[in-house]
Design a protein that fits this description.
The chain has a seven-stranded mixed β-sheet, with helices on both faces. With 171 residues, the protein is α/β, with parallel strands linked by helices. Helix 3 packs parallel to helix 4. Helices cover 33% and strands 29% of the residues. The chain is built from four helices and seven strands; from the N terminus they run E-H-E-E-H-E-H-E-H-E-E.
Length: 171
């Protein structure tokens, strides 16, 4: 993915792996990139062009309001979601938890993305993902399913990359 974006929101930023990648790619195209790194735990991220927010993704109002306050009306180019649940070892429960996180992330993305914006989210195979991908097709004009080359072949993890938010009635 090419980052010709100025504003990226990283949901589930953790220790900042995707935040670092986004900044490095954005700096190649944008003189003043801004990544808003959000996680439910306090982070030690100290990077230029990065603002951290401690928030629970399931508190959509808090997350959206915090982002809007920082951006003063500017919309977001890309929302990255690398959210992952604490795994229990129960495949069904873990899959359901992952899908709940992905749904919370897309709910935030719908509120803050530019119409031309991108949404990228981690998903897992387990039964609910096809319905979720179908729902994304109602929200975005373009939906791609990706399995990174670096991902283990047996891994149930994959990503969706969506573009071009549809004009939506209140959802």
């Amino acid at each position: 993915m090419t980052f010709t974006a100025r504003v990226v929101v990283d949901l589930g930023a953790g220790q900042g792996g995707w935040t670092q990648v986004a900044i490095e790619r954005m700096k190649q195209h944008t003189p003043s990139p801004h990544v808003i790194a959000i996680d439910y735990r306090e982070s030690n991220l100290k990077m230029d062009f990065v603002t951290t927010i401690v928030a629970d993704i399931f508190n959509q109002d808090q997350v959206v309001t915090s982002i809007e306050h920082l951006l003063n009306g500017e919309q977001v180019d890309v929302v990255l979601s690398d959210l992952a649940p604490n795994v229990s070892g129960d495949r069904f429960r873990d899959h359901t938890s992952q899908m709940n996180l992905a749904q919370a992330a897309v709910n935030v993305a719908k509120c803050i993305l530019k119409p031309s914006g991108h949404f990228v989210s981690k998903l897992t195979q387990g039964g609910e993902e096809q319905q979720f991908i179908g729902d994304l097709r109602q929200i975005f004009h373009v939906v791609d399913v990706l399995k990174p080359d670096a991902s283990r072949q047996e891994s149930r993890e994959f990503y969706v990359h969506t573009r071009k938010l549809r004009k939506l009635a209140a959802i």
